[in-house]
Each structure stands twice: as structure tokens, then as C-alpha cells.
């Protein structure tokens, strides 16, 4: 009798802990690197859809993209994208800034960006273009620069003087 009661309570508790989010259908989400969901306990974490920020001046957009290039979900992209932004962000025109914005903000997994930049995986058509080509070339590091950390922000003060 006790075992039946324990099973019943544990089953009810587990079901009540299961988030209601499981029923949402999203176009963006992250499930992690789990190969399968044999236990039925992995949920997809829904992410808000990426939308382009309208009405932003180019200066504000550059500043936002610089911050977002530096503050990534993984150190590899933090270093890669912040150095890339330091070198190219101030020379990008409006369409290039939009491409870069979409590239670093729409994919839900930072590893995807890293694999595309290092050419370990093919770039989806939606992200292929001038900025991705520039990032792939930058990632090759043909000058063999030492890239161990994100750049200091001192270069920003020099640009505003």
C-alpha cells in the first residue's frame, strides 16, 4: 500500500514540476547537446524571436553591437567577435551593420556562430554574405596575431577625440 501511494505521489509531483512551456512551438530555442530525450525530461528553452531594432542611429547601433560582441555566451566568441568588432565595426555601413546584428543576435547557439566562422560547418544561406565572409577571413588570422583576450576599451576614447 505504501509503495502504491509513493508511486502515485511521486508521479503527481513530477508532472507538476514539468514546465508548461513544453507545449509552446517556437522558431528559436535551445535544447543543449543531448543526443536524445529517452527519459522525456529535456525541454526546449524558448527564446524570444530576434527582431531588428528600428529607429536606432548608426552610432547607437555600433555601440550596442560592440557591447554584444564583447559579452557572449562563450569565451571563444567573446574574444573573436570583440576583436573583429574593434577592427571593422567603425567602418561598416548601414546594411553591413544590419548583417552583423542579425549574425550575432539571431542564432540561439553561440557555437553555431563559432563553427561557421571557423568553417567547421557550412553557413546557412540567411547568414551568408559580406560580413560572414569578412568574419571567416578574420578568423583565419593570417597575420598570426596573439588573440588571447578581448581588447581593452581604451581604443574607444582615442576614436572620440
**Unreliable stretches:** 12-27
- The geometry reads as globular
Structural class: mainly alpha
| Rounded Rg | 21 Å
Biggest sheet, strands in spatial order?
1-2
Most strands sheet:
2 strands, antiparallel
Number of helices: 7
Note the gap between the termini.
80 Å
The portion of residues assigned to helices is 40-55%
Number of strands: 2
Q: How confident is the prediction overall: mean pLDDT?
A: 76
Tell me the strand percentage band: under 5%
Q: What series of H and E elements makes up the topology? A: HEEHHHHHH
Protein name: Succinate dehydrogenase assembly factor 2, mitochondrial
Subunit structure: Interacts with SDHA within the SDH catalytic dimer.
Organism: Oncorhynchus mykiss
Subcellular location: Mitochondrion matrix
Short description:
The protein has 7 helices and 2 strands; from the N terminus they run H-E-E-H-H-H-H-H-H.
Descriptive account of the structure:
The structure is a single chain. This protein has 161 residues and is mainly α. It is 50% helix and 2% strand. It has a two-stranded antiparallel ribbon with strand order 1-2. Helix 2 runs parallel beside helix 4 (94-105). The protein is globular and about 50 Å long. The N and C termini lie far apart (80 Å).
Amino acid at each position: 500500500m505504501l509503495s502504491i501511494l509513493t508511486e502515485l505521489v511521486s508521479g503527481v509531483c513530477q508532472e507538476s514540476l514539468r514546465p508548461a512551456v513544453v507545449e509552446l512551438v517556437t522558431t528559436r530555442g535551445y535544447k543543449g547537446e543531448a543526443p536524445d530525450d529517452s527519459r522525456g525530461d529535456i525541454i526546449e528553452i524558448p527564446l524570444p524571436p530576434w527582431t531588428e531594432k528600428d529607429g536606432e542611429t548608426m552610432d547607437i547601433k555600433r555601440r550596442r553591437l560592440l557591447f554584444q560582441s564583447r559579452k557572449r555566451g562563450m569565451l571563444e566568441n567573446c574574444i573573436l567577435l570583440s576583436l573583429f568588432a574593434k577592427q571593422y565595426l567603425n567602418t561598416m555601413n548601414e546594411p553591413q551593420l544590419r548583417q552583423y546584428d542579425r549574425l550575432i543576435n539571431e542564432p540561439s547557439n553561440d557555437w553555431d556562430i563559432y563553427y561557421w566562422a571557423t568553417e567547421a560547418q557550412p553557413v546557412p544561406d540567411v547568414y551568408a554574405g559580406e560580413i560572414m565572409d569578412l568574419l571567416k577571413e578574420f578568423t583565419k588570422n593570417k597575420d598570426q596575431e596573439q588573440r588571447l583576450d578581448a581588447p581593452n576599451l581604451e581604443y574607444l576614447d582615442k576614436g572620440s577625440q
